[in-house]
Amino acid sequence: MAGEPLLKVQGVETFYGNIRALSGVDVDVHQGEIVSLIGANGAGKSTLMMTICGSPQAKNGQVIFDGEDITRLPTHLIARRRIAQSPEGRRIFPRMTVLENLQMGANLDNLKYFKEDVEKVFAMFPRLKERQTQRGGTLSGGEQQMLSIGRALMARPKLLLLDEPSLGLAPLIVKGIFEAIRKLNKEEGLTVFLVEQNAFAALKLSDRAYVMVNGKVTMSGSGKELLANPEVRAAYLEGGRH
Amino acid sequence: MANGYQNVQEDVMAKAVKEGAVAGIIAFLMFLVFVGIETYQDINNQLVWRTRWGLLGVFVIVAAVGRFVTVGFIKPHLDKRKLAKAKTGILEVSEEKSFFHKHFLKIALVFLLCYPFLAMMIFGRQGSLKYVDNFGIQILIYVMLAWGLNIVVGLAGLLDLGYVAFYAVGAYSYALLSANFGFSFWLLLPMAGILAGFWGIILGFPVLRLRGDYLAIVTLAFGEIIRLVLINWTDVTRGTFGISGIAKASFFGIWSFDVGAANNFNKAWGLPSSSVYYKIFLFYVILALCMLTAYVTIRLRRMPIGRAWEALREDEIACRSLGINTVATKLTAFATGAMFGGFAGSFFAARQGFVSPESFVFLESAIILAIVVLGGMGSLTGIAIAAVVMVGGTELLREMEFLKHIFGPDFTPELYRMLLFGLAMVIVMLFKPRGFVGTREPTAFLRTRKAVSGSFTKEGHG
Questions:
Q1: Touching A: B residues 298-317, CB under 8 Å
Q2: Residue B244 and residue B238: Cα distance in Å, rounded?
């Protein structure tokens, strides 16, 4: 890939109190790519995701987005740079309706595109359209995940961060959601940075991927390369093939 | 078949008798010390005790009979009705609302607008004083306070146990500024609101990082700090003596309600001299203030800031990752809620003509919060109903003179206020865990407006 990456994470170290969760992570995400980050539980994947969003902030190193250093920006200002996140555990607003949830994702100061964007999300996830007046908390897990992604898309993001979109979902629904991500990337050219436990599905979907162990990136390469890599196969794929 | 049915009924009766007896025993043990024994000071200022077996008996009998009737008659009846309904297949939820239900708000507003005149027609000029002042104004003050707190607790989800502090700030702002500088009510009303809102922000800053229980404790402390400052800063606030002789509100500066004034309202309109006209005027002022609160709340809920409050209540981290400035959002919630508390406070001072720290104890905060919770957090109608029931109910207790004939001349119904308050709360929470109005009106629609029933969500998540 030529040119400056859209998102450049450089030597980032993040601490929870005295505990070092990330020790010098470098990750690049280029315009139009799907990049995934795989690793075991507690490897620091979600921490990296949250560090990009500025909560917690990196102690050392830099996060550069679109040529701007966003390391020290507060979370809500990072979000306004159009980095949208579908956080781990979905975190939709359970007592608000589906439509209100989507509205929260939209740029509240400028609702010009609201209707158009809602229709787009509904076209992608027709289930949400059926349930638009229901409360978020009454949706099934898969629908909540769709809502979480839909809400993130309402911000018309330049970069979409997805934290474990397959968490706790049936394989068929996971397939549907990954299909939707692929479509977004192909048709709209949306850049996606994906954190996944479901390594097989993630690597198949991604252009490139990083493997994380104990707060460090230990391996990187194209999705296909990593799928073929014996070490990766042994650690993350054997028995995990869905 | 008939035999079997009889058996079942006998079983129910046996069970009812047993449970009634158990309830009686439990009531006896529980109230033995609290009700059965009373301490008092005798002539020599010594603390002695006497027994009140009669009253204790009444308590035990009420508990036993109540349980007996509930188990033996009410529950089987309800079960039967439910069963019959299930058999005929009619759902309890019907889409068609009755006329009264549909136009409830309009009817209520018209009633409120006519209320003082109705009271005057029915009870005469002096007789209506009680109804306009004790019931009307008193209830509306609590409605306004509860609606103000609703912004903080119901919408933004920040549990505030010290709301009365802002009420106090509003009341003292009016009392002090009017006594020392002679400003009028209509100038000080917005000023008291602004000052209270300012204190809301001051409270907001240190508690930005706190949520739930921790926030509740800090706000509780804040409420007490304000009260203690009012008690101890005697140079300014005159401490526990309070400030008396606070100027009355005037009719927008055109007419005064002071008896000696040249432009006295009653004289100008050729009315007989009576304080009831001032009370009626105050009634409309507080009604207007309530309407203002409701209007602002409804408008804000449809605006980005109101939506952000509700989202903040649900999930703070998600809010931040969606680009919402949670600091500003929390502070505006505190400030807006406090501002309405301040309005209510300055009105309270003008109405009483006297303020002292006594009026701003923790119990007031608790009552206001109870009204918000009972009404159904976030629902304006529900909160108004809860205020009528709770405040009106306690006022009504004062009127229950006939109880003295039953329980003897020593019986003062007001003393049982809190007991009944608690009882009412337990009952409401048992049968309507989401408060009187558990539905939440959605604020965004593409095509049609459709209320979301509270029955779809977890308890306490209305």
A1: 304, 307-308, 310-311, 313-315, 317
A2: 10
pLDDT digits over B420-453, tens only?
Answer: 778 877 888 888 777 777 666 666 666 544 444 4
d(CA A101, CA A92): 7
The answer for residues whose C-beta is within 8 angstroms of residue A95's C-beta and 6 or more apart is A135, A136, A137, B310, B313, B314, B440, B457, B461, B462
pLDDT band at B211 (very low <50, low <70, confident <90, very high): confident
In a domain, A105, yes or no: no
Q: What is the ipTM of this complex?
A: 0.82
What's the one-letter identity of residue B372? V
Residue A12 belongs to what H/E stretch?
strand A7-16
Distance from CA of B461 to the nearest CA of A (A): 7
In a domain, A238, yes or no: yes
Q: What is the pLDDT of residues B237-275, one digit of tens each?
A: 887 888 887 777 777 767 777 766 666 777 766 777 677
Q: Does residue A15 lie in a domain region?
A: yes
Could you give the number of structural domains in chain A? 1
Q: Give chain A's residues under pLDDT 70.
A: 1-2, 107-111, 238-242
* Cβ contact B267:B259 at 8 Å: no
Number of helical H runs and strand E runs in chain A: 10, 10
pLDDT at A193: 92
Assess if residue A131 is contained within a domain: no
Tokens encoding A175: 């397939």
- A-to-B residue pairs, Cβ atoms closer than 8 angstroms: 99
How many Å apart are CA B424 and CA B181, to the nearest integer? 45
Cβ contact, residue pair B321, A99, below 8 Å: no
Give the count of beta carbons closer than 10 Å to the beta carbon of residue B228: 11
Walk me through the domains of chain B, giving residue ranges and CATH numbers: 2-88 (no CATH), 104-399+432-456 (1.10.3470)
User: Residue A55 maps to which CATH number?
Assistant: 3.40.50.300
Average pLDDT estimate for B288-294: 91
Rounded Cα–Cα distance for residues B239 and B228 (Å): 9
- Write the secondary structure of B167-204 as one string of H (helix), E (strand) and C (coil): HHHHHHHHHHHHHHHCCCHHHHHHHHHHHHHHHHHHHH
Q: What is the structure's pLDDT at B104?
A: 79
| A94 three-class SS | coil
pTM: 0.80
Q: Using a CB-CB distance cutoff of 8 angstroms, which residues of chain B are in contact with residue A99?
A: 442, 444-446
Q: Do B307 and A135 touch (CB under 8 A)?
A: no
Q: CA-based angle B190:B154:B107, to the nearest 5? A: 75
A6: containing domain: 1-79+191-242
Please report residues of A whose CB lies closer than 8 A to that of B457. 94-95, 135, 137-138
